[in-house]
């Protein structure tokens, strides 16, 4: 269907550091979005019919293109978000590392597995991983490259075709991804990039696809989940965060202050797992705050297109983000919080900010701020630190600082989050085999590693064997007249004490003996034989099961 240029919404490319409008792209219409899902569904049999090795070969071509285009990619990401080229390069590095690892392990992680045969001694049982069909990947703007491509690669490796909807806020990176993927003709029929905002995303969800992988805010997660429920479309939701950092009394204070500040300010604080709340033990509170203020003051704000720029922090990515940050800081200050450094902005460049005297009544400690703000609270004991960290609607990630790893791990295990990193911040997201995701309002499901790949598949159970054999105990139990045998077998196999295991056998033997007094030798022989058979089969079964136990 042809749509006139006027009927389309145009999405502008804006550099938030300079305000420069450097291009635009036409958003898809809802009809085009839905047609994309239909076309990718038609392409699904051809892609899912390939072996994993064949899919890996195509994705290795993508890997080669990404490396060749590295400088082109960082230029666009930096222009689109204002972040330094080196930070843009980290997005490419994480993406390539992830792709490389997924290609290496896909065949192993998706292999067919044999499971124990239960009562069916003469059959074999397998679990295979089947792709869903068309996977829809909906992405945010804060890491417009590294949050689009890894789930897209996972979905493809698992055998799905993919529709990707990048964020409208960073549409230039979305357009770049479309160009990069088009450079691998072998992949082109099996992936489509559809541009536009929430309305286009909603049209794609309604299409419907066969699986949805959403990375975005909790509010969008709820809207998408409601819409997905209409079609019972399964989904993964990687949503917002309000990550806590706990600095225990035995922590390396200088390292905690330096890398905690990095976790708060990296990417101008626009990281789902940024350090958004800091809890520090009373005994080290004063030196920690002083060193955090020093770390914040040392950060340089600015933007340059050069490969090596002297800046650590770029601008917030768009006005809405600045509005949120200002609202949260103003709310905290109105309730008695103090800004020790920062708190001001120049255009979209917001100064790295350290705040104290904050409480959980303030937005800055409750809602996702997504800005370069480090609010710090003190705690008297570890129980209080854990209680404060868990006193949040979110449950994405957290960090714990201590020189004693066992001590830190003990605290980490009490935190209601999908992951915890000890003596560092954010870094574990970049480890390809670590499953990443949250709980509570941070969503559900995991990306990365084996779990991330497998989420794009559903288990297919396959039972293989000859027709039921007369002597197979499972066959015998289907036929009437074997109550005693079934009961004896069940007790023998599943009894939890020797007495419970042998109870029906003993009862059958007693019954046989009683009947023997009435001299019906034929029936005695039959009962004893049934009990003996049950015992023999059960012991064979038990022996077989214990051999299989890992
Ligand atoms: P957002 O929720 O505004 O948008 C995310 C995506 O959803 C965009 O592509 C948007 O166009 C699309 N969308 C919006 N409404 C839709 C609808 N009704 N149907 C379908 N799609 C729709 O989020 P954002 O502002 O782009 O990203 C920031 C948020 O993402 C933050 O909350 C951040 O914490 C979260 N995030 C989470 C993770 C994680 O791994 N958990 C990673 C990065 C970002």
Low-confidence stretches: none
* Proportion of residues in helical segments: 40-55%
Strand content: 15-25%
Shape: globular
User: How many beta strands in the DSSP annotation?
Assistant: 22
> Major sheet: size, sense and barrel closure?
7 strands, mixed
Strand order of the largest sheet: 12-15-16-11-10-18-19
Helical run tally: 19
The Rg value, from CA coordinates, equals 30 Å
Q: Can you list the ligands bound to this structure?
A: nicotinamide-adenine-dinucleotide
Distance N to C terminus: 58 Å
What does this structure look like?
The chain is of the alpha/beta class and 550 residues long. Helix content is 46%, strand content 18%. It has 19 helices and 22 strands. It has a seven-stranded mixed sheet, sandwiched between helices. β8, α8 and β9 form a beta-alpha-beta unit. α3 packs across α4, α17 packs antiparallel against α18 and α17 packs parallel to α19. The two termini are 58 Å apart. It binds nicotinamide-adenine-dinucleotide. Nicotinamide-adenine-dinucleotide (NAD) binds next to α7 and α8.
Concise synopsis of the structure shown:
The protein is of the alpha/beta class and 550 residues long.
Top keywords for this entry?
single chain, 550 residues, alpha/beta, 6-stranded mixed beta sheet, 46% helix, binds nicotinamide-adenine-dinucleotide
């Amino acid at each position: 269907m042809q749509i006139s240029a006027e009927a389309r919404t145009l999405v502008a490319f804006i550099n938030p550091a300079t305000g420069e409008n450097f291009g635009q792209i036409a958003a898809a219409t809802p009809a085009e979005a839905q047609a994309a899902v239909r076309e990718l569904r038609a392409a699904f049999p051809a892609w899912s019919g390939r072996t994993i090795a064949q899919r890996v070969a195509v994705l290795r071509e993508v890997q080669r293109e990404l490396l060749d285009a590295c400088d082109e990619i960082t230029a666009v990401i930096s222009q689109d978000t204002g972040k330094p080229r080196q930070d843009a390069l980290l997005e490419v590095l994480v993406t390539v590392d992830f792709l490389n690892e997924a290609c290496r392990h896909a065949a192993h992680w998706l292999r067919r597995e044999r499971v124990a045969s239960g009562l069916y001694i003469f059959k074999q049982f397998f679990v295979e991983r089947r792709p869903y069909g068309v996977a829809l990947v909906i992405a945010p703007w804060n890491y417009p490259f590294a949050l689009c491509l890894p789930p897209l690669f996972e979905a493809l490796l698992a055998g799905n075709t993919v529709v990707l909807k990048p964020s409208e806020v960073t549409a230039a990176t979305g357009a770049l991804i479309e160009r990069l993927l088009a450079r691998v003709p072998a992949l082109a029929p099996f992936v489509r990039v559809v541009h536009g905002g929430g309305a286009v995303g909603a049209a794609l969800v309604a299409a419907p696809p066969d699986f949805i992988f959403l990375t975005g805010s909790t509010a969008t997660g709820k809207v998408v989940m409601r819409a997905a429920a209409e079609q019972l479309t399964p989904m993964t939701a990687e949503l917002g965060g309000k990550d806590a950092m706990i600095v225990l009394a035995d922590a390396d204070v200088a390292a905690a202050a330096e890398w905690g500040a990095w976790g708060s300010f990296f990417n101008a604080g626009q990281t789902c797992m940024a350090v958004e709340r800091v809890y520090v033990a009373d005994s080290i509170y004063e030196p920690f705050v002083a060193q955090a203020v020093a770390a914040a003051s040392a950060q340089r704000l600015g933007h340059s297109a050069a490969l090596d720029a002297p800046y650590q922090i770029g601008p917030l990515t768009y006005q809405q983000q600045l509005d949120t940050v200002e609202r949260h800081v103003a709310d905290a200050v109105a309730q008695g919080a103090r800004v020790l450094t920062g708190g001001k902005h120049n255009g979209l460049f917001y100064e790295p900010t350290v705040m104290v005297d904050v409480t959980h009544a303030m937005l800055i400690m409750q809602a996702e701020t997504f800005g370069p703000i480090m609010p710090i609270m003190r705690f008297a004991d570890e129980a209080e630190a854990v209680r404060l960290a868990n006193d949040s609607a979110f449950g994405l990630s957290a960090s714990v600082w201590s020189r004693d790893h066992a001590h830190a791990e003990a605290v980490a295990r009490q935190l209601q989050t999908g992951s915890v990193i000890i003596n560092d911040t954010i870094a574990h997201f970049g480890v390809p085999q670590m499953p990443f995701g949250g709980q509570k309002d941070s969503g559900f499901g995991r990306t990365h590693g084996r779990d991330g790949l497998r989420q794009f598949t559903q288990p297919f159970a396959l039972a293989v064997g000859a027709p039921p054999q007369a002597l197979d105990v499972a066959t015998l139990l289907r036929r009437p007249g074997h109550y005693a045998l079934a009961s004896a077998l069940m007790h023998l196999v599943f009894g939890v004490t020797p007495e419970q295991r042998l109870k029906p056998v003993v009862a059958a033997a007693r019954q046989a003996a009683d009947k023997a007094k009435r001299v019906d030798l034929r029936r005695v022989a039959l009962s004893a034989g049934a009990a003996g058979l049950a015992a023999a089969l059960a012991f064979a079964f038990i022996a077989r099961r214990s051999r299989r136990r890992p």
